[in-house]
Amino acid sequence: xxxxxxxxxxxxxxxxxxxxxxxxxxxxxxxxxxxxxxxxxxxxxxxxxxxxxxxxxxxxxxxxxxxxxxxxxxxxxxxxxxxxxxxxxxxxxxxxxxxxxxxxxxxxxxxxxxxxxxxxxxxxxxxxxxxxxxxxxxxxxxxxxxxxxxxxxxxxxxxxxxxxxxxxxxxxxxxxxxxxxxxxxxxxxxxxxxxxxxxxxxxxxxxxxxxxxxxxxxxxxxxxxxxxxxxxxxxxxxxxxxx
Length: 243
Prior knowledge:
alpha/beta, 5-stranded mixed sheet, 7 helices, 30% helix, Ap4A_hydrolase
């Protein structure tokens, strides 16, 4: 059986990424795919980009990777851009949109937020119609029709849901989880690049990491939006949540 670790939404949090990579290595998983948002909110986007380039077999772009690689008038974005430098910015701007392949006879399609856009946000509690649309194809993918299993990041909420024989999953977030304050990723298990229908599994993994070290690194860098970042790391509560 083949196994693929699917990580996403690292957001410049180096201690969280290091903890996840150590866990993946301990499980002896050699294939790692990254579903984007390597950079921003945390302080170590430059180191994270370099580490992802070294360790991940495939990397696609998230919404942060897209807009931070473009000119901006926002000071917080400019701060992250200054950390990255021109070569990393170019790398982010050239990342592909998605990944698709067969595994144990199932068409697997992976993207950052939706098969249509890295900016289309669909939460696990939204309408069934919207969630089922995540199985759809688009001009971004070679194969037509719906996927048998679709996986994404973006919303920082890990889950697995089934719809009439199709499986939808979210990896959660490595560096900015918004359910519990532990890093999250997914593992796919089956026969890679096989059209024969055989056993297939999806596992969600939670990894504790040194949150206070991540906060210390951000504080030492005098990072913009520090208070909101600290709140999210310690409480897993989204900074935009009201009440």
